[in-house]
Amino acid sequence: MSVEPHKIILRPIITEESQIQTRKANQYTFRVRSEANKQQIREAIETQFPEVRVVSINTMNYQGKLRRHMGSRHVGRRSQWKKAVVTLRRGDVIDLI
User: Fold this and answer.
1) How far apart are CA 69 and CA 67, in angstroms?
2) d(CA 54, CA 88)
3) Contact yes or no for 32/84 (Cβ under 8 A)
4) Which end of the chain has a smaller Cβ tally under 10 Å, C or N?
5) What angle do CA 57, 59, 2 make, to 5 degrees?
């Protein structure tokens, strides 16, 4: 799969827990394409943010939740997605906000 690096990283995940990880362990959380592997995620991060070096990447696949529509018995499903937690070298920073 050859996908452009800016299409692999979909968006950062900015939650209270991810901000704690950023401060304590220099880890950043991103929502990425489901088909992307760790090498492609590493290349995409280092291409989009050339001043940083990636130490490690942890990925998690999430199943879509079942959801009911209001006022009906129809049950649908949210889409599946993938999360990547990227650990950077000590001293490297990504300015997300």
Assistant:
1) 7
2) 5
3) yes
4) C
5) 85
Q: How do residues 40-82 score in pLDDT, each as one tens digit?
A: 999 999 999 999 999 999 999 999 998 888 878 888 899 999 9
Torsion sign (Cα): 41, 48, 97, 64: negative
DSSP letters spanning 5-37: HHHHEEEE---HHHHHHHHHH-EEEEEE-TT--
Sign of CA dihedral 55, 11, 6, 36: positive
Mean pLDDT of 10-35: 95
**DSSP label at residue 52:** -
**Angstrom distance (rounded) from CA 23 to CA 6:** 25
The pTM for the full model equals 0.87
| Pair of tokens at residue 83 | 């999360």
